[in-house]
């Protein structure tokens, strides 16, 4: 992508990958400029979401951002706390996070996933007013949906490696109630 293409993606929104009754609705902070330009969630080359999702066992192979709708086969979806694309999350205001939290709560109540997994504990804290939240399962629910705060898979998050993130994502996977078998890519 050229710098011009990336700048043209500023403030774009990217459609959610959602359906009713998901096992897990993953919720990013907001789309990157790369995601805004491509229309694919977690599309920045330095983002570790797709490798971590596979490594943790949520998907039988590593999906590419362009294959994001394949997540629905596994009972997974993607949305964001704030819909508009920015170069960095620190370009978003606390008010945008709070408004995004209200919109997200309404979306979750409508879709009723088993789990809402917010990939960024600081975004979760701000969006839902949970100042002391830590990585892991939360005591906060939205309707019947349980909430888990996961580490942000951005390449800028140096506190977590792909392996330690995969372990935390795997903890969530172990708590997912699979009412139906998760399909594999095997014939």
UniProtKB/TrEMBL annotation:
UniProt keyword annotation of Kinase present: no
In its keyword annotation, does this UniProt entry include Metal-binding?
no
- Residues in a coiled coil are none
- SMART domains in UniProt: UDG, UreE_C
Molecular function in Gene Ontology = pyrimidine-specific mismatch base pair DNA N-glycosylase activity; uracil DNA N-glycosylase activity
| Sorted UniProt keywords | DNA damage, DNA repair, Hydrolase
Give the highest taxon in the source lineage: Bacteria
Q: Which GO terms describe its biological process?
A: base-excision repair, AP site formation
Query: What's one Pfam family here?
Result: UDG
Ranges of residues in domain Uracil-DNA glycosylase-like: 15-170
Q: Which PANTHER family match?
A: G/T AND G/U MISMATCH-SPECIFIC DNA GLYCOSYLASE, G_T MISMATCH-SPECIFIC THYMINE DNA GLYCOSYLASE
Q: Which NCBIfam families match?
A: PRK10201.1
Q: What is this protein called?
A: G/U mismatch-specific uracil-DNA glycosylase
Q: Which organism is it from?
A: Streptomyces atratus
The opening ranks of the lineage are: Bacteria, Bacillati, Actinomycetota, Actinomycetes, Kitasatosporales
């Amino acid at each position: 992508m050229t710098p011009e293409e990336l700048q043209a993606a500023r403030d774009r929104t990217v459609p959610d990958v959602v359906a009713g009754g998901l096992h897990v609705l993953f919720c990013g902070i907001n789309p990157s400029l790369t995601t805004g330009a491509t229309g694919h969630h977690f599309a920045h080359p330095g983002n570790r979401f797709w490798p971590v999702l596979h490594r943790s066992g949520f998907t039988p192979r590593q999906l590419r951002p362009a294959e994001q709708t394949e997540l629905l086969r596994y009972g997974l979806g993607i949305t964001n706390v704030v819909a508009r694309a920015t170069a960095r999350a620190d370009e978003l205001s606390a008010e945008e996070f709070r408004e995004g939290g209200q919109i997200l709560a309404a979306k979750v109540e409508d879709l009723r996933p088993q789990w809402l997994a917010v990939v960024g504990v600081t975004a979760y804290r701000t969006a839902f007013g949970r100042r002391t939240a830590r990585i892991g399962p939360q005591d906060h629910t939205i309707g019947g949906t349980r909430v888990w705060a996961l580490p942000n898979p951005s390449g800028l998050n140096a506190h977590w490696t792909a392996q330690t993130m995969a372990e935390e994502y795997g903890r969530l996977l172990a708590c997912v109630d699979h009412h139906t078998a998760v399909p594999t890519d095997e014939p």
